[in-house]
Amino acid sequence: RVGQIWNAKDGRAISKSIPSPPLALHKRAIFVSNGQGRNLTRPTGRPAVIIIIPMQALAQDHVLIVDPPTVLSRLYAVQEAKAYTSNSTQQDDRTAALEERIRELEDAVGSSFHSFRGALQQISSHIGLQDVSETLVGFTARPNDDQVIRSDIQAESTPELSEVRYDGKDLVDKGILTLEDCRKLFDFYGANCSEIIAFFDNAMGSFEETRRCPLLLAAMCTIGARASAPRLYRQCLNETYSLIQQTLLGPVPSLETLKGILLMTVWHKNYRLLGLMLSIAYQMQLPETALSLADKTSEHDEDSIDRARTWLSFCCVDLVHNTNKTYFISEIDRYTRLGSALTSTPYRRNVDYRIRAYLEIYVILNQAKKDVLIPDNIQQQPITSDVCRQLQFYDKQLESWFRRNDEEMDPIYQTFSKPQDRNRMEIPYNFARMHLNGFILHGLKPDSARNDPLRVQFIRAAVDAGKALLKCALRSIDYQTNLNYSIDYSGSALGLAINFLSRATCVAYDCIDLEGVMRILAQARDMFEGAKLAGKADEVSHILDQVAEIKRNMTAAKLSNNTTEVDLNDNVEDGSDFFLNARLPLSEFSLDEPSIEDILMYSGE
């Protein structure tokens, strides 16, 4: 049968360990080993073609399979011979040519195998890989009895790839932290950091349970050290990233390990890790588990709900941080409607209500973007009544969302474990209002807003929402207390509001309350100074100076009765499309690539 090697002399099966080729086999069979080819004919007289070369594949139609402990490349090539003819000479010529081609292929890939093996060794050495087992992430393990390794290749297998194994040691086992320090950092994280990100589950296991997942423990200790023990921060951070690197070439990690990666992604604004987490989540089939929530015939246990919860938390991260860019997750709208299903299970937790709230608000925003922004009719002057009705419709939906969540979730506790000194849904609500009404500024040129009274109403609503977002943070003692070490997450919302207010001021300076904008920006600057974030305070001071300059120019223009030709300095070119050209320097709120800290409507890539 397919997958066996037959003795050429007596027809007995001499091996059953060759895996079946991925394509149908026809005509003649040839087994290649150590550069020698032999014609094999099955007892039934029905020939086939099997070519197995344990080396790196080179051609596009070849299959490369990497299976530690030994790098094994199985190259299957299937060639259907023409119908047998009565001319035996032609048949022999074809066979000889095929055998010669096989030898050429073996020689070519033979030299490449050593380069391939050396590259793997270099990668392992570069990232400090010491313990890796099972298969590489992205490849499927094959049973041991389904492997045939050529003797000369097996002898050359490197011990680094064949003997490594993940030992599961944590920060304490490795001597990076003492047991006392590790427990203190873990406890600090639980008491002060676990509830900062609303859509992350704040229900933690015990210290002993968390030690079973070294990466999750390392992530929590890194966050705790950043906030409370700076002397331990760098060593915790290095260990966490070292463990994350091991997931690149290690076995598919556990769900708890994935949660640790997600923590580092958001707490340290390392959004490159989103791609890694996305690939692992797909391999773990977390999206399928989440989608099954909508299937009433599907049965779920506590583990499957936790898997779905983790995926939907990841969706929230993607939605929040890529609102104005392409989402990492393909067809993310499929998941934004699963919040109600999550809160309907018997295994629901408090965090599930917050996840549902975030998913629901982005259902509104994403649909509004499709209906209002994409058609491009929002730039028409004056604004059309259809656009006004659409904006008002979605604004009412946001108001209904906020009121509904206030009624279902206590506006003070809001499903957290301890009292909150602010309404935790107020910041996402005001961000959504600012984002929605801010659509009206898309593509708007300076000096043109005042000629469109309906547009001015939406501009003022967006500016009011941005100011309300900042006021919410300014009213919260807890928010300001943890701002110093939660700035990578908490500062994102503040950066959005500050950027929006500064840019809206430059474009629609004669339509909004400049005094009110300057007051709230000054308070934001003082908040950053109080949190010992001097760099961000300086950035806000720079923006405040620009707004003050605009106000002085307006005052001078009014005194000279020449308000239509005001020189707004070099920061804004009169007649230009501000959102395509102006980038106020706010590096403290920006990533290397375009990010959520960029102005909401900016589309200048």
Automatic annotation (TrEMBL):
Record flagged with keyword Nucleus: yes
Matches recorded under InterPro entries: prtT
Record's keyword terms, sorted: DNA-binding, Nucleus, Transcription, Transcription regulation, Zinc
Main localization category: nucleus
Molecular functions (GO terms): DNA-binding transcription factor activity, RNA polymerase II-specific; transcription cis-regulatory region binding
Localization per Swiss-Prot or TrEMBL: Nucleus
Keyword Translocase found: no
Record's GO cellular component terms: nucleus
Protein name from the UniProt record: Transcription factor domain-containing protein
Organism: Aspergillus arachidicola
Lineage of origin: Eukaryota, Fungi, Dikarya, Ascomycota, Pezizomycotina
